[in-house]
């Protein structure tokens, strides 16, 4: 997918300024940057949860021009290509784990319920939670809930999965369970775009790192280049120091 010349303001606050970036398919892009720099706004724009005032967005065979009116069909189409996973999971509290995973495929994709259920069990197995299928969200740990949210996203077969600080609410050992699942998906070439403050994980998993500061992209390159610039680029240096 690609963004070209994206601008987003909240009042007089220019939150995204002329963002142009390629977010490659079948790869893992990690977005990093200080709090308030615009990372969530950028990620949410990819799912059309935010509407930039201008800019072009291409994902798969879809082309969005943010300066024009966006139809509800375009919104639906973009959301089928991009699944969002939130920091606080956003599971349906009154549905079981299994019901959470099959809801989208049955209601939105109109999949046959038996087929959706079969696949849901496979996905729950993949994230290590098959035995929790009949549990409710409040019976799960944070790490388990986030893995259900990832399975629910996978059930929709999006081209890209977008994850906004997926482990920020988790204790380290629960975080590790979720990072393991994400590393497995990255190895399977699932396209991922992850906002995270975990630079150790970013270094391990990222094919590409995008560093955002004050609504602008300050760095866009390989993980190795990013960490190599630790000496040369004072802003990257300061950011990495502040995180470790
Ligand atoms: P990050 O995810 O990097 O912490 P955000 O994208 O959440 O940054 O926010 C970027 C800037 O936009 C911040 O100054 C924030 O206060 C502002 N902002 C985000 N969402 C809104 C909103 N709904 N209304 C007004 N300002 C917002
Ligand atoms: Mg954020």
Describe the model.
The protein has helices spanning 39-46, 72-81, 97-107, 113-126, 142-154, 172-187, 199-205, 223-228, 234-243, and strands spanning 2-10, 13-22, 28-32, 54-59, 62-65, 82-85, 160-164, 191-195, 208-213, 216-221. With 244 residues, the protein is α/β, with parallel strands linked by helices. Strands 6-7-8-3-9-10 form a six-stranded mixed beta sheet, sandwiched between helices. Strands 2-1-4-5 form a four-stranded antiparallel beta sheet, with helices on one face. A hairpin with a 2-residue loop joins strand 9 (208-213) and strand 10 (216-221). Helix 4 (113-126) crosses helix 5 (142-154). It is globular, with a radius of gyration of 18 Å. The longest helix is centred in the C-terminal third of the chain and has 16 residues, at 172-187. The structure holds adenosine-5'-diphosphate and magnesium ion. Residues 10, 13, 15, 33, 35-41 line the site of adenosine-5'-diphosphate. Adenosine-5'-diphosphate is lined by residues 10, 13, 15, 33, 35-41. Residues 1-239 form the ABC transporter domain. It is a peripheral membrane protein. It is found in: Cell membrane. InterPro entries: AAA+_ATPase, ABC_ATPase_HisP-typ, ABC_transporter-like_ATP-bd, ABC_transporter-like_CS, MetN_ABC_transporter-like, P-loop_NTPase. GO terms for molecular function: ABC-type amino acid transporter activity; ATP binding; ATP hydrolysis activity.
